[in-house]
Amino acid sequence: MDTRKLVAEFVGTLALIFIGAGSILAAQAAGGGVNGAGLITVALAHGLVIAVMVSAVGHISGGHFNPAVTIGAWVTQKIETAAAIGYLLSQLAGGLAGALLLRIAIPEDIWRTQNLGTPGINFVSDGQAVLIEALLTFFLVWVIFATAIDPEGAFGKVAGLAIGFTIALDVMMGGPFTGAAMNPARAFGPALVGGYWTGHWVYWVGPIAGGVVAATLYDMLILRRRTPEPRVEMEP
Predict the structure, then answer these.
(1) CA-based, 20 to 30 A from 114: which of 11, 79, 83, 222?
(2) Which pTM value belongs to this model?
C-alpha cells in the first residue's frame, strides 16, 4: 500500500474536522451560533476545506476523506479491498486527530457548548435524520463520481470546486437538522473526543447507504453504459 495515499487521506480528513467542526465552535464564540449567518459560515468552511484538500492531494489518493466515499468506490470496484481498508483507517485516524487538536486549541467552555462540533439531530426523528444524511451523501458521492472518478470527468479543472460546493449546499440544507455530516469520520472523531454519542449510528447508516446507492447507480447507468460492446464478426 502506498503510504503517500494514506498520509493524504489522513491529512485531508484531519483538516476537515479541524476546520469544519472548528467553524461551529468559532461561530459560537463569535456570538452568532450556527443559525442564520453562522450557518453560511459553517457551510462555507466545510466546503472550502474539502475543495482545497481535494485540489491539493486529489492526484495522490483521489481525495476521499470519507468512509462513505471509499465504501462506494469499493463496492463499484474502483478501489481494491486492501487499499479501501487502509483508507478507512487513515480517515478515522485523521478525524480523531483533528478532534484532539481542536479540543486542545479551543477553551473547554466553548467547545462543550457545541459538543466539540459533533453533528447532532434536531427537529427530526432518527429515521428522518437517516434519510436526510443518505440524500445529502447521495448528492456528494454522485458529484465525486462525476468529476473525480469518471475518467471523462473534469478532475484536473473543477473536481475540488464542485465537490466543495456540493458539501456547502448540503450543509446549508441539512445543517440545522442533522449537522450534515455526510461522513462517518466527520462524526466519529468529535464524538469520541467530546464524548457525545447521541444518535451516532445515524452518521454511519445514512452516509454509507446514500454513498453506496449513488456509486452503484452512477457506475451502472453511466460508466458501464459508456463501455462499447464487443463487435461480433459475421462468418462469410
Answers:
(1) 11
(2) 0.92
